[in-house]
Amino acid sequence: MAQNTLVENKQPLWLFSAEEIASIPPYEKQFVRKLAAYIIVCSEWLSLPLPVAHYAVVLLTRYDMLYDLEPRTEAPYIAAACLFLACKVQETHKRLRDVVFWTVKVRTRKSRDYPGGEEVLEGSVRYVEEKENLLSAERDVLRCLHFDIFLETPHSSIVQLAKIYGNTRENQRMLAQFALNVLHDTYVSIPFLHIRYRAKEIATALVAFAAAMYDYALPDKTIENGQSGQNESRLVAFHEYFQVNRIVLNEIWKRVLDCYEPEYSSEDKTNSLSKEENRHR
Amino acid sequence: MSEANHRVKRYQKEKVLGEGTFGIVNKAKDTKTGQYVAIKKVRMGNSKDGVAIPALREIKILQDVRHENLINLLDVFGTSSNINLVFDYCIADLEQIIKDKTIALSTAEVKGALKMILCGVAKLHENWVLHRDLKPSNILMDTQGVLKLTDFGLSKLFASPYRKYTNQVVTRWYRAPELLFGATQYGTGIDMWSVGCIFAEMMLRQPYFPGDSDIDQLSKIYSALGTPTEEEWPGVAALPAYVEFTPKPRPPMRQTFTAASDEALDLLNQFLLFDPWKRISAQDALNHPYFKKPPLPCSPNQFLEKVKSGRLFLDSDSRYSLNQVETDDPLSKRRRYSDLGKRRLEF
């Protein structure tokens, strides 16, 4: 792939520093994770594609960074509103009555009154109440996020990288599938990752992570003495494709591995990271 | 003072510019910059399914794709019942310019206008966006004479060529024949057909295919271009709403466009090819010899001067006036960090 195909970096408008994210209290981070899981479960019942749910989780995280999710009684409505908005923005339209039905049912599951979840049907007084709360939360989310609802998710970049760097269809599928699975986990376990790093950085890190897990050497025809730019037709190194800094990649790897603890010890982490580093030295 | 409150008061409404399907457009003055802006007010309070999808589409696309020939979204703010989209203020639309017969558009001016339209369409298509409602009233002229595409409420991303879309798009007069035959899989060709209709309209100074029903629309197209054969448009008979017409021969275009150059007619023909896959793309159209041969396309300034010479500007600025600023709904949320709050998107 010629070097001139490198994708232009856009100014990250919605990325927060490590300090800003660290300033969120741990109990609140845990609460956001619970809401993210709530969004994912609702999206499954609504038969929504996963990228829509992921989109909603990022909206929720952005919201939490600007305005805290207190009082907690409002928070599930904010999460449901993020999901409803994500459906609209991603052109995966769902009827309001279905969104109300499933978000209430999932929210009230395992409660004393409704062990199987409350079923709110269109036309009932409860429906009107729930609908008003959801629509009010939707307007609230839009206004709090300053109507900036455009966001890039790593999904397409993962597929793009897997197609470029997988040498066979089987390897391409393997890289993309593993990276997408890990990506899904990040939205539930470390949702703040998506407001810390660019989508393309996350995509690059996860494809490299998938390659490391399968012990697949990502092809790279970079000339060893470092003067690799002279050959226009060379395939750029995987981290160069989206111009991702390797330090950032390592940071993302560490965050991702942390969410799989104790499956991978810190020693394993260092080993696999060093292995990947050595491969590109 | 809350931010929403502040932002509503920042814009002082002066008059109604127009009323569309989704809301009213007002002219307003931005007290911060002293510039005039257009504010499109979209109702969101009473909608059955919450915030209107066309408004969200428009916001999303205009945040993502920016170009000189696309309307510039300056700001968005909400009140209790509306979303307000703040755009560059434009002084006229192409429909008004075409209808004003006191403005004599020369070949250079038609070329200049078409070039600006094509640049905007090319940028959209390059970003995988179909406009799906191109027509003269959706092409505005700003204070510098630059034409800008607007109204992205029907726009759509077209990443997958196999995905099905609704065929109930595009105002009838500018609707491509595949849409009239009910096609649900289509691409950039539908916008290019509309561009062809607009190009013809600029030369004729009246709509080229003013049908009053879908059948009449097809009839008018066939009267001007002849009925397509299976060779010209493979697969036409398989379209869902295909209707067979009595074959009509294709009359020479020169009969209708008496003053047009050969290059202009060739380009128009390529815009109006029946087979959508053979229709010229916006980028190829920009490289067509029509734009290379003299007279060369005029500059936006020259276009503005010509438009200003017409009656259009003598009649303007006298329609409606509104009272200042509506009541607003203060943003009651507790802001977490003042510094994070400042991170808001600067349009």
TrEMBL record, chain A:
Biological process (GO), any one: regulation of transcription by RNA polymerase II
Domain of life: Eukaryota
A Gene Ontology molecular function term of the record: cyclin-dependent protein serine/threonine kinase regulator activity
Domain Cyclin N-terminal as annotated: residue spans: 33-149
Database matches in InterPro entries: Cyclin-like_sf, Cyclin/Ssn8, Cyclin_N
Protein name per UniProt: Cyclin family protein
Automatic annotation (TrEMBL), chain B:
GO biological process, one term: positive regulation of transcription by RNA polymerase II
Binding-site residues, ATP: 17-25, 40-41
Any GO CC annotation of this UniProt entry: cytoplasm
Keywords from the UniProt entry: ATP-binding, Cell cycle, Cell division, Kinase, Nucleotide-binding, Nucleus, Phosphoprotein, Serine/threonine-protein kinase, Transferase
Pfam families: Pkinase
InterPro entries linked: CDK (IPR050108), CDK7 (IPR037770), Kinase-like_dom_sf (IPR011009), Prot_kinase_dom (IPR000719), Protein_kinase_ATP_BS (IPR017441), Ser/Thr_kinase_AS (IPR008271)
Top enzyme category: transferase
Subcellular location: Nucleus
Known EC number: 2.7.11.23
GO molecular-function term, one example from the UniProt record: ATP binding
Location of the Protein kinase domain: 11-291
Family of the protein in this entry: Belongs to the protein kinase superfamily. CMGC Ser/Thr protein kinase family. CDC2/CDKX subfamily.
Protein name (Swiss-Prot/TrEMBL): [RNA-polymerase]-subunit kinase
Lineage of producing organism: Eukaryota, Rhodophyta, Bangiophyceae, Galdieriales, Galdieriaceae
Lineage top rank: taxon: Eukaryota
Active-site residues, as the UniProt record annotates them: 133
